[in-house]
Design a protein that fits this description.
11 strands; about 400 residues; two-stranded antiparallel sheet; globular
Amino acid sequence: MKTTSRLPLAATALAVVCGFLAASPATAAGRPAAGHPRPTTPATWAARAGNAYDALQKNLYQGPAEHGLYAEQTPQAATDNPHSYLWEFREATEAAMDMAALPHGGQAYTADAAERFDTLQLYFNPRDGRPGYDSYLPAPLGQDGDVFYDDNAVVGLSLLDQYRATGDRTYLDRAETAYGTVSRGWDTDQSKTCPGGMDWTDTPTNTVRAANVTGLAAELAARLYQADPDSRFLTSAKTWYGWNRDCLRQAPGLYNNDRDDDGTVNTTLWTYNSGAMVGAATALYRDTGDRGYLGKAVEDADASLAYWTQGTRLHDQPAVFNAFYFADLAGLDAVRPDPRYRAAAAAYAEQTWQHNRDAATGLFRFQPSGGGDYDPAGPAQTLEQSAMVQILAGLATRSR
């Protein structure tokens, strides 16, 4: 059931721009109480990010004795793996990086970020000339997993971010390795409808060419070109971005989820597919100076924002997908400022802080989808808790 008192995101965003939206604490019972309206300052966003990060570390981080890994959720179910999957761990890594980027006090988290990247390598499997980050830990810590190309693309993006933050060439080299893994996913069968596109996973049985992989891979390649101007990165970025736009674009800013090899199109929409195409076009504009890419980024950002801020659409999306989306909008905002982008992120963060956070633990809870209304019986998950750290820290870092 939807919370009928919740404002539509478009209206809430306007309130955030004006600086009058409440930033109220949650009740001890685990649901928020109404607070008195006051501006949400960068210091408030940073404090909230710190609270969410502390809750992540206290409740889901498994510590040095468990190799610096995370649990998938708390409370853990009997059927859970001992440790989280790669995607969850990547989001916890991104959360530590975002905390380290805070303008005041970020240095307190730099060691955490470095530790996450050391631990991340536990998921890397050099297998028989087809290396990649496995979806689950290889032996001896786990039972191995498949190489999902979207996982490897986002790991590459994090490695590239850490390279920019530290200047350590090790991270750039690893990001380029991730690019090599993702490149294997490009489908070369010209007999298929709309040939090209990125396979979802590195298995012979894969039949899906997916928007998330292709868009995120394009963003990775375009951003790699900024760090290492090798023409293969730029060529890949242009090709991969173009395929998504030509073969999966449902409308400006909205991308179908995937195209099956039999020609079937999955028309499901996700915020991170919108975001990846904004991010890729923004990076291509930075690479080339071609204002056509900037125009495409703005078109997709504006149209997707108009769509996603209607009713409860953003609220109903998984928090982790929204973290991607807001980060990509912020990247465009840095090139071509528009206060609506940050306002949408702030509105979502305000509502989620008030409606989805348990004040007793600092943990966020959602529906099984990872989005939607607070579920007091549901577990708190590393994936979504990390996403909320990213969103909150991003608002503190990028506040103007």
